[in-house]
Amino acid sequence: MEPPKCPFCKPFADDIVAKNELCYARWDRFPASKGHLLVLPYRHTPNLFTLTADERLALFILIDDCRVIVEENFHPAGYNIGFNTGEVAGQTVMYCHCHMIPRYSGDVKEPRGGIRGVVMGKQCY
User: Fold this and answer.
1) What is the domain partition of the chain in residue ranges?
2) Could you identify which of 22, 90, 94, 109 might form a hypothetical disulfide with 84, taking C-beta atoms 3.0 to 4.6 angstroms apart as the criterion?
3) CB neighbours (10 Å) of residue 118?
């Protein structure tokens, strides 16, 4: 039996929005908001903790480059940037990828607490 194909391995050139030597960025196919990007290493590795130091640096440099692209095209008011690591944290593709989710004024009723909202009842404190 052949293992399932990874949707992030071997990206098509037209999927790539930005890149550097070790990482690339692509639009999320199921965006949480306009301009939602995924930033990934080229090397297939399961999560943030398995990146090399060079990959980690390249990924965060690319996030900054992507901010320029998103701001020129979508004009967000803020961002949520994060990783899902492990199935219990919501990771469904076991290939390290960082979500860069632009946020817009009024897109949720109460944004206070931001990323804490991934744990029910913990967003507002």
Assistant:
1) 13-105
2) 90
3) 13
Give the closest residue to 83 by CA, choosing from 94, 74, 68. 94
Q: Tens of pLDDT along 56-84?
A: 999 999 999 999 999 999 999 999 999 99
The DSSP call for residue 36 is -
Spatial CA neighbour of 94 closest among 37, 58, 40: 40
CA distances from 53 to 59, 84, 99 (A): 10, 19, 19
Q: In terms of pTM, does the model score above 0.85?
A: yes
Name the fold adopted by 13-105: HIT family, subunit A (3.30.428)
Q: Which helix (H) or strand (E) holds 61?
A: helix 53-74
